[in-house]
Write a sequence for this structure.
C-alpha cells in the first residue's frame, strides 16, 4: 500500500521547570522513538491508556505542539507524501505549514470545548475555507451548506451557535469542519469518547461513510479497543510513549501477542455474563508517569511475564509475522512462561 504518511523515530519531550529562576529540573518523554506508516485510504487505530502519548502524536503530525508549548523538544521525521513530493512536516514554520492545513485536518475529542462559542456554525466551518482557499463567499457558503447536509444537519444550522446543539450534533459540526477542505488525512482524536453509546455508533458509521465517499485516510486515536477494532485496518498499541505492538486489526484483536495488549483486551467488558474470564491478564499497580519512566522495557514494572533482563534492556519493535511487530522478546513464549508460573496473580 502506498504510504501517505510516515513517522520515523518521533520523539517529543516537554521540559519541567522549577525553582525561583525557573531552571530545568526534569523532562517528560511523552513520545519516545515512535515509527509507523499510514497508507492511502487506510485507517490506523492508535490505542492505549491515558498518558501513553497518543494525542501528542496526533498534534505532532499537525505541527501544533510548538504553538501549544513553545519549549517542547521534537526530533524525528513526519513525512507527508504529496503529489510525488515528500515533505517533512516536523519543524516547518507556521507559514510553511499553511499549504498543508487543508490536506491534514483534526477531529477533536471534546465537542463542547473545540467549537468557538462566539462564532456561528457557518463561521466555524467556513473559516478554514476563507483562510486557505480562494473560493468566493458564495462558493464557501454553498460548500458549507453541502457538508452540513452530508453530516446530517439542516442548512439553517449555519446561523446557530454551538450551545444550541446536542453533544452528538456538535461532533458532527466538528466532522464537517474537518472535511469541508476536502483533506486527504484526518487525525481523529478520540472522536466518540465524550458521546453516549447510541450516538457513538452513529458517528462511527458517518466517519466510515465519509471515508468511502472522499477516499479519506484516518489516524483513529482511542482507548477503547473494541471501537478501534471496528473501524481500523491496522492497530498500533501504545504504552508510555512507545508502540509495543502493531499489526492487522483482526490479528491484534483476536490473537494479541504483547502482554500489555493481552491485558487491554482482557479488560474489555463481555456481553455474555456467563462467559468465563479464566486466563484473564491482571496488571499490578498503576501506569507510571512519563516523568518517571522505568528503565529498560517501560512495561516491565507491571508485566506479568517480566524477566530479569527486562529492567535493563529496551526491546525493539521486531516483526514476528508478516503483518505483525511486537516489542517483547518473550511475546511468543507467553503461554510457556504462564504455564511455568511466571504470570503474576
Amino acid at each position: 500500500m502506498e504510504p501517505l504518511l510516515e513517522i520515523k523515530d518521533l520523539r517529543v519531550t516537554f521540559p519541567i521547570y522549577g525553582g525561583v529562576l525557573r531552571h530545568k529540573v526534569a523532562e517528560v518523554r511523552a513520545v519516545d522513538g515512535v515509527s509507523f506508516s499510514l497508507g492511502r485510504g487506510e485507517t490506523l487505530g492508535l490505542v492505549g491508556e491515558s498518558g501513553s502519548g497518543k494525542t501528542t502524536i496526533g498534534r505532532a503530525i499537525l505541527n501544533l505542539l510548538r504553538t501549544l508549548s513553545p519549549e517542547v523538544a521534537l526530533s524525528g521525521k513526519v513525512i507527508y507524501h504529496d503529489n510525488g513530493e515528500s515533505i517533512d512536516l516536523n519543524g516547518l514554520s507556521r507559514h510553511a505549514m499553511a499549504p498543508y492545513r487543508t490536506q491534514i485536518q483534526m477531529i477533536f475529542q471534546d465537542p463542547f470545548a473545540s467549537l468557538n462559542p462566539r462564532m456561528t456554525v457557518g463561521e466555524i466551518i467556513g473559516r478554514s475555507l476563507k483562510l486557505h482557499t480562494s473560493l468566493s463567499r458564495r462558493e464557501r457558503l454553498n460548500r458549507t451548506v453541502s457538508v452540513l447536509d452530508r453530516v446530517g444537519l439542516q442548512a439553517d444550522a449555519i446561523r446557530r451557535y454551538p450551545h444550541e446543539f446536542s453533544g452528538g450534533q456538535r461532533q458532527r459540526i466538528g466532522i464537517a469542519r474537518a472535511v469541508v477542505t476536502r483533506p486527504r488525512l484526518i487525525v481523529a482524536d478520540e472522536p466518540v469518547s465524550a458521546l453516549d453509546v447510541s450516538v457513538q455508533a452513529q458517528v462511527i458509521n458517518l466517519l466510515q461513510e465519509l471515508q468511502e465517499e472522499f477516499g479519506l485516510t484516518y489516524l483513529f486515536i482511542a482507548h477503547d479497543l473494541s471501537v478501534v477494532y471496528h473501524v481500523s485496518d491496522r492497530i498500533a498499541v501504545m504504552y508510555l510513549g512507545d508502540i509495543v505492538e502493531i499489526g492487522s486489526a483482526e490479528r491484534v484483536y483476536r490473537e494479541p501477542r504483547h502482554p500489555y495488549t493481552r491485558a487491554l483486551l482482557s479488560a474489555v467488558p463481555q456481553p455474555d455474563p456467563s462467559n468465563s474470564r479464566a486466563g484473564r491478564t491482571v496488571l499490578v499497580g498503576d501506569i507510571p508517569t512519563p516523568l518517571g519512566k522505568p528503565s529498560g522495557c517501560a512495561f516491565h514494572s507491571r508485566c506479568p511475564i517480566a524477566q530479569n533482563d527486562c529492567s535493563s534492556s529496551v526491546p525493539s519493535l521486531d516483526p514476528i509475522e508478516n503483518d505483525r511487530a511486537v516489542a517483547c522478546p518473550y511475546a511468543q513464549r507467553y503461554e510457556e512462561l504462564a504455564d511455568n508460573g511466571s504470570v503474576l496473580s
